[in-house]
């Protein structure tokens, strides 16, 4: 086994207790009308958020994982810990505060096309800050990589993202970033903070829409070019069923996706991220890591359940 693969992968970011109503009957519409009652085939409750999703899938792939996020000192916070432990994810490094509510997410997934609507509440994620993270009692000598997820939703942390990434860089720890969807009302100052942060990481995992939004371009090739110009070493653009594009300073390669029946797209990007990081940290090339990541994402979308064992 590669030495790096035996080290801990530290996942940092937004964490939720999420309840999903699956295969919701809406008469073929991507909307809910007031005053009506809707029936779903089933429901699930799970720990969620980009950092949680990646941590959960990394554990399923046999990686050593630690998770840092923030929760309230409330009933949902306790429930979140229980759900995480049930998935094999250590919750001992979550920051606990009585000043905030644990973040919760309620989703409805439409039966006719698998699209979803999410309702989110609770201020814990937005209050996670730099000092919360670096004050955790972690043996960083045993950390091989850091995954940062959900940056665009972390209101207290976003201004310190360059400082946080530099903190890990100085300790020789690889940093991988997936900032998530760029909100419509995102300020130019925050967009520039994301670009600065991207230039400091070892791997950047946007989807096609996200990389075009953060670079303010409409063409993928132009967006990738602009990102490479700011100094990032590795860009992996997720393209759904079409696979992904892998860009390094020396070349750009498209890796075709796997064709599967799409049953549930929730969390496919996070499954991809976990698959890539697990292989890349084990010493595989970016191209081989991307092929495995395509396979993990394909297995995710081919299952109605969110959490699945991803050993392939």
Automatic annotation (TrEMBL):
<protein>
    <recommendedName>
        <fullName>Carbohydrate kinase PfkB domain-containing protein</fullName>
    </recommendedName>
</protein>
<keyword id="KW-0418">Kinase</keyword>
<keyword id="KW-0808">Transferase</keyword>
<dbReference type="InterPro" id="IPR029056">
    <property type="entry name" value="Ribokinase-like"/>
</dbReference>
<dbReference type="Pfam" id="PF00294">
    <property type="entry name" value="PfkB"/>
</dbReference>
<dbReference type="GO" id="GO:0016301">
    <property type="term" value="F:kinase activity"/>
</dbReference>
<dbReference type="InterPro" id="IPR011611">
    <property type="entry name" value="PfkB_dom"/>
</dbReference>
<feature type="domain" description="Carbohydrate kinase PfkB">
    <location>
        <begin position="10"/>
        <end position="304"/>
    </location>
</feature>
<dbReference type="InterPro" id="IPR002173">
    <property type="entry name" value="Carboh/pur_kinase_PfkB_CS"/>
</dbReference>
């Amino acid at each position: 086994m590669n030495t790096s693969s035996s080290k801990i992968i530290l996942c940092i970011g937004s964490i939720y207790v999420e309840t999903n109503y699956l295969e919701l009957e809406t008469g073929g519409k991507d909307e809910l009308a007031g005053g009506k009652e809707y029936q779903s085939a089933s429901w699930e409750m799970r720990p969620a958020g980009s950092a949680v999703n990646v941590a959960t899938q990394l554990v399923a792939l046999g990686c050593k994982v630690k998770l840092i996020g923030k929760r309230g000192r409330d009933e949902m916070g306790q429930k979140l810990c229980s759900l995480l432990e049930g998935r094999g994810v250590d919750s001992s490094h979550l920051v606990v505060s009585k000043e905030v509510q644990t973040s919760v997410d309620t989703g409805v997934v439409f039966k006719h096309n698998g699209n979803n609507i999410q309702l989110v509440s609770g201020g814990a994620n937005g209050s996670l800050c730099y000092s919360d993270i670096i004050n955790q009692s972690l043996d960083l000598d045993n950390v091989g990589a850091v995954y940062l997820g959900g940056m665009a939703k972390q209101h207290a942390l976003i201004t310190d993202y360059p400082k946080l990434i530099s903190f890990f860089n100085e300790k020789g720890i690889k940093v991988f970033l997936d900032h998530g969807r760029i909100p419509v009302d995102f300020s130019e100052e925050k967009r520039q903070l994301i670009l600065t942060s991207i230039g400091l990481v070892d791997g950047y995992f946007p989807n096609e829409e996200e990389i075009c939004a953060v670079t303010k371009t409409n063409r993928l090739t132009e967006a990738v070019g602009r990102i490479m110009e700011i100094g990032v070493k590795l860009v992996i653009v997720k393209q759904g069923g079409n696979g992904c594009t892998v860009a390094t300073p020396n070349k750009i390669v498209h890796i075709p996706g796997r064709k599967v029946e799409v049953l549930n797209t929730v969390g496919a990007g996070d499954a991809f991220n976990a698959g890539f990081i697990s292989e890349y940290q084990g010493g595989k090339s970016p191209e081989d890591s991307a092929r495995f990541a395509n396979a993990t994402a394909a297995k995710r979308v081919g299952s109605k359940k969110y959490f699945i064992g991803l050993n392939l």
